[in-house]
Structures are given as C-alpha cells and as structure tokens.
Amino acid sequence: MKPLAILASVMVLAVAAPLAHGAIPADPRGGETIQFNVYRGNSSFGTHEVRFSRSGEELTAEISVRLRAGVGPLTVFRYEHDSVERWRGGQLVTLEGETLKDGDRFPVAAARNGSGIVSEGVLPEGERHTEELPRDIIPSSHWRGYEEDLRRILNTEHGDAMEVTITDMGMEQIEADGGTIQARRIRLEGTLTVDLWYDENGFWAGCEFEARGQRIRYVRQANPAA
C-alpha cells in the first residue's frame, strides 16, 4: 500500500457494531460536513471534506481530497481523490471513486451482491483487478471509525483489501474546531501507521501520520454536529 492510500482514502447507522472501546459510531444527518485543513509540517497542504446526505434509509457520503505541494508556482506533488459511498442499514451498498496521483488515474467501483462486495480497481502497478470481499467490509475513508477486531478494510484508492491492525489509544486533547476538544485516538497500522481521532459524537475529528519523511496533520474546522 502506498503512503497516501490510507489518507484518501480516510456511513454507519447507530445499529452498527461498536467501535473501539468506549467509542460510538457517527450517525450523520443530511447536510452535515466534516472539513479538514491539511498540513505538511507547518505548511498548508490542502483540504479533505466529507459531505453527508440522506434519502429515506440511505445515507450518502461524498468525499473530496485536494492536496498539493510545490516550490513557488511549480507543483511537485498533486493528489486528488473523489468518491461517493452509499450505505443502508449499517452496511456499504456501493462505492464509486477515482484518484489522481502524480498524473495517474485510479478508478474504483464496488457494489454489494448476494454474498459480499464485488470491487473493481487498478493496482499501483497499473494492473486491473476484480475481487469479492466480505459483505461487512469497511472502506478506508476513516469517517465512520474502525472496530478493534478489524483485520481488513477496503482500499478506496485501488479497490483491494488492506491488512490492518486497530488499537484504541484512549482519550486525549487535540486541536480542532477553532480550539481544543477531547477525542478518542485510534491507531491504524498497515504499511503506514495512521493516528485517527473521533469526538464524543463519533465524528472523525483529526488525523496524523508520516509519509515520505514528512508529518501530515489534519485539523478539523468545525464540529459537524454543532
């Protein structure tokens, strides 16, 4: 897995399985948005947004990531990710997305069938693939949190299954929403180690990891439930 796979990759109803000890899953309402400013070191690196809408029992999350690093007007790194997830009854129904990374495009499409989730995507080497994943697999979009006993998640960048280890690190204060808040820290370990934070309502509140020798940090701009 490439360093930015988890990033982009980062809608479950309250009846979903419990998350890491003491945490609750977010139950977004239509019109709510999670918006982060992203920093590379102390420099602005871009934005990451998750927008929620509802239609009857269906919950939709639209995800948009825009990252750029440059020297003056020269762009040396560009990353864009757009995806749409549709959920019903606490389970993923469909996922469609595309990632643009350093000029290469990686489309992904996943949909529930009778026995599981059929996912199609393009691996980093350019090979197209199709695989059937468990019906209850969770995408790597981060917004809904992760169970501690989780061992695989759906890579929203390439459409394959990623092996992971989830650890609950407990409560702590983080920078968010124009000040500081209490949030639960979850560590997701794969090829890359990512720390994720979730607030008292279960909403994704922060993110931090290292990639290419740089510290990447997400700062949430406002409480979606406010």
From TrEMBL:
Does Signal appear among the keywords? yes
* Pfam families named among the record's database cross-references: DUF6134
Asked if the Swiss-Prot or TrEMBL record annotates the protein with the keyword Signal, the reply is: yes
What is the residue range of the signal peptide feature? 1-22
Q: Which domain of life is it from?
A: Bacteria
Q: Could you tell me the keywords of this UniProt record?
A: Signal
Question: What protein is this chain from?
Answer: DUF6134 family protein
Kindly list the organism's lineage. Answer: Bacteria, Pseudomonadati, Pseudomonadota, Alphaproteobacteria, Maricaulales
